[in-house]
Amino acid sequence: MKSVTILGGSSAGVGTGQGCSSYLVTIDDTHIVLDMGPDTLQELRKHVDFRKLDAIIISHLHMDHILDLFALRFTLTYNPIKAERKTPLYLPPGGLAFFAQAAALFTTKNDNVQSYFSDVYELAEYDPTREVIVGTTRITFAPTVHVVPCWAIRMHPADGDDFVYTADAGTDSDLDAFVDGAALVVADSAAAPDASEATKRGVHFDAAAAAELANHAGATHLVLTHQWEENDPDRNAVIAARHFDGEIDTAKPGLEVTW
Predict the structure, then answer these.
(1) How far is the CA of 146 from the CAs of 35, 40, 66, 135, 200, in angstroms?
(2) Are 20 and 40 in contact (CB under 8 A)?
(3) Residue 25: which residues within 8 A CB-CB, separation 6 or more?
(4) Secondary structure of the chain in the HEC alphabet?
(5) Domain boundaries, the chain
(6) What does the pLDDT look like over 141-165, one tens digit per residue?
(7) Which residue pairs, CB below 8 angstroms and at least 24 apart, start in 111-115?
(8) Which residue among 28, 77, 103, 193 is buried most deeply as judged by most CB within 10 Å?
(9) Residue 18 and residue 15: Cα distance in Å, rounded?
(10) Neighbours of 53 (CB within 10 A)
(11) Which pLDDT belongs to residue 109?
(12) Which residues sit opposite 91 in a β-bridge?
């Protein structure tokens, strides 16, 4: 079985009904979380035991993609039922220094700054030019064009049907080859249809660009994510359908897509 469960699909701020970017990928008995934005830990707890995640992988270090890592740190530290092992946490380049600084900000007199995160997380930086293997799944990366360094993530299950998460990506991102052949694409579509071309090129896809990318991939299913509720996600789905003939969903907490 392969599925992606939406834990949060709002844009840079939480919506009235969902948190920011986070996605639970289940491949057979392996559970991997991609990004962990604010207000998503509570949704994660509805679907899987947070103590038993096989990996968390972070696309980039913006707060709307990582804030609940801090909430999870507290949950793992103080929950009366302890995890049997540390949670593997794969950070993008620069992530270890970032979390060292964060530890220095958050520690109190009773905390050890050196182990503030490493007590519960098995911290590592991934090399975006090399694959990461979790269970039987290979994971590869491609750089996107965004306001900070960011990487799209592709999951390569053993059966060959792949899934791509674009993370935050402007249309200047060169992702065509990276997504080629993927069955499912979860794509940034934060930009409104009338957003400036500079925003679309250098910061975020809009729904049309997300759909064109999925169409180029030859995907059968597209999930539009990272959307402001104020930008009418239902309208964005209609726009996407003009550019992509496959199945289209808008990201909502609890939505499970199998592929």
Answers:
(1) 16, 23, 16, 30, 10
(2) yes
(3) 2, 3, 4, 31, 32, 33, 34, 155, 163
(4) CEEEEEEECECCCCCCCCCCCEEEEEECCEEEEEEECCCCHHHHCCCCCHHHCCEEECCCCCHHHHHHHHHHHHHHHHCCCCCCCCEEEEECCCHHHHHHHHHHHHCCCCCCHHHCCCCCEEEEECCCCCCEEECCEEEEEEECCCCCCCEEEEEECCCCCCEEECCCCCCCCCCHHHHCCCCEEEEECCECCCCCHHHHHHCCCEHHHHHHHHHHHCCCEEEEECECHHHCHHHHHHHHHCCCCCEEEECCCCCEEEC
(5) 2-258
(6) 999 999 999 999 999 999 889 999 9
(7) none
(8) 103
(9) 5
(10) 20
(11) 79
(12) 125
Give the tens place of pLDDT for each residue, 2-53.
999 999 999 999 999 999 999 999 999 999 999 999 999 999 999 999 999 9
Burial 35-46 (b: 16+ CB within 10 A, else e): bbbbbbbebbee
**pLDDT given for residue 57 in this prediction:** 99
For the purposes of burial, counting CB atoms within 10 Å of the CB of 221, is it exposed (0-12), middle (13-18) or buried (19 or more)?
Answer: buried
Beta bridge partners of 133: 138
pLDDT at 111 (0 to 100): 85
Q: What pLDDT, in 10s, does the model give residues 44-63? A: 999 999 999 999 999 999 99
Q: Are 89 and 61 spatial neighbours (Cβ–Cβ below 8 Å)? A: no
Q: What is the pLDDT of residue 164?
A: 98
The class of domain 2-258 in CATH terms is alpha beta
Residue 169 has a pLDDT of: 98
